[in-house]
Design brief:
The protein is α/β, with parallel strands linked by helices and 439 residues long. It is built from 14 helices and 16 strands. Helix 2 packs across helix 4 and helix 7 packs across helix 8. The chain binds adenosine-5'-diphosphate (ADP), aspartic acid and magnesium ion.
């Protein structure tokens, strides 16, 4: 069994959905096809939720209507037969009726998550209708029947595995299964999701749950590039990455992969392939346990970072002090990305600001607290970076024109991370691109 996940752009146009159909029927292997929402849909649903949270029902209604029109055009180009078009009309009607009913009831966070789920529900149902129209045998697997997270928003891999295996056992002869990425149930049995970009995470969790032979992530680019192609003009795909390297890149901002999407594959040693729907024969990137080559392979940047410095004249690094600092973050379920220490101060970075005020208040018990917002972590990832001579000097030379707020080196052999003000991010990525890679 393999997993084939297709992202928003890969299903975002009727002709692309046809391409996806071609790709999943190229061989006769068993596969679970995981689909995202059509590109733009989740952004639109987020905007609808925001309008409702602001009690701006007119704006929400307008946005629902615009999205509705998009789907009414989409299905007519996707499907040919009257029967299939009728089915699609019914599906679209049902989901937009639901959105319109929400306009009439009082809004809350659980309803917001229901709104966000509509994109993947629509894309999978429309795609399934296309397969039916073409007479391609497939089974529809609702993700809400098996995908779940616990009260800490962590996926329940064991439960997911048991449920999914039990469902699949009912279909021993079938070869194609279609399911939604991103959406899941939470511990209250409400509809929830795996955060933005979460379909990659779904694919990896599903792969781990059934111990699939490979997890293919089909997207709109030919694999993981050595730098962010949205910012830097000259980038190139990387043929091979280790799980550790890919996890660092995903976590530190390479948008092609959801930040948490590597660990399930790594835990079960399942290769992950990043492939291009628009160029299916390009080699893409293969991610396995194997560590290859040495030196810098790629850069990524993570925005929206806040640095917090705790300065204390009272023996800051006395044993037990860091524990007290970390306990404050633990109490507010806020994870720390980077940490640096000196005799008189500790700096940490966080990206979840929901409890910033409380955290600062509690840290002030231990010393003066300074906060720098709008920071960016630039991560340089590769194999044995920490052992290779001269790499740090090259990095610093590329960044000589920018003030560096923090440096994290030696934490792993695969990563050097630097914290800069976000306004230097683009220039820093460009300068590192020129200085660290041979072109
Ligand atoms: P999908 O909708 O298929 O999940 P995403 O938009 O989430 O696709 O991810 C693919 C995009 O990630 C690419 O189009 C590219 O702009 C962006 N991206 C950012 N950093 C990288 C990188 N290092 N390598 C490849 N793509 C990257
Ligand atoms: N549709 C969701 C999003 O846009 C999940 C995904 O595309 O991976 O974030
Ligand atoms: Mg994505």
């Amino acid at each position: 069994m393999k997993i084939m996940k297709f992202g928003g752009t890969s299903v975002g146009k009727p002709e692309r959905m046809h391409q996806v159909k071609d790709l999943i029927t190229r061989d006769n292997n068993k596969k679970i096809v995981v689909l995202s929402a059509l590109s733009g849909t989740t952004n639109a649903l987020v905007a609808i939720g925001e309008a409702l949270a602001d009690a701006n029902k007119d704006l929400a209604k307008e946005k629902i209507e615009a999205l509705h029109q998009h789907y009414l055009t989409f299905y007519k180009q996707l499907l040919k037969s009257d029967a299939a078009q009728k089915k699609a009309e019914k599906i679209i009607k049902e989901h937009f009726e639901f959105l319109n009913i929400i306009l009439k009831i009082s809004f809350n966070e659980a309803i917001n998550r229901d709104i966000l789920a509509q994109g993947e529900l629509l894309s999978t149902k429309l795609f399934f209708t296309l397969l039916q129209e073409l007479g391609i045998g497939a089974v529809f697997l609702p993700a809400l029947d098996f995908m779940s997270i616990d009260e800490n928003h962590e996926p329940e891999l064991k439960k997911i595995s048991e449920k999914l295996k039990a469902i699949l056992a009912n279909y021993p002869q079938d070869r194609i299964f279609v399911t939604q990425g991103y959406i899941c149930k939470n511990h209250r049995n409400e509809v929830d999701n795996l955060k933005r970009g979460g379909s990659d995470y779904s694919a990896s969790l599903i792969g781990a749950a059934i111990n699939s032979e490979v997890i293919e992530i089909w997207t709109d680019i030919d694999g993981m590039h050595n730098n962010d192609p949205r910012i830097v003009d000259k980038t190139r795909p990387i043929a091979q990455l280790s799980f550790d390297e890919a996890a660092e890149l995903a976590y530190f901002g390479a948008k092609i992969l959801h930040p948490a999407s590597i660990w399930p594959a790594q835990q079960y040693n399942i290769p992950v392939k990043l492939l291009n729907t628009m160029e299916p024969d390009a080699p893409g990137t293969t991610i396995t346990a194997k560590e290859q080559g040495s030196g810098v392979k790629a850069l990524a940047a993570k925005d929206g970072i806040t640095a917090i410095k705790i300065k204390s004249s009272r023996m800051l690094l006395a044993y037990g002090f860091l524990r007290k600092v970390f306990e404050v973050f633990e109490k507010y379920k806020t994870s720390i990305d980077m940490i640096t220490t000196s005799e008189v101060a500790v700096s940490v970075t966080i990206d979840d600001l929901s409890h910033l005020a409380e955290i600062i208040k509690e840290l002030e018990i231990y010393g003066t607290v300074e906060v720098d917002s709008n920071q960016t972590i630039v991560s340089i990832v590769g194999n044995m970076i920490a052992e290779s001579k001269g790499t740090m000097a090259k990095i610093m030379n590329c960044l000589k024109d920018y003030p560096i707020r923090m440096v994290s080196y030696g934490g792993s052999r695969h990563n050097v991370s630097l914290l800069l003000d976000a306004k230097y991010k683009n220039e820093a990525l460009k300068s590192l691109n020129e200085g660290l890679f041979e072109w």
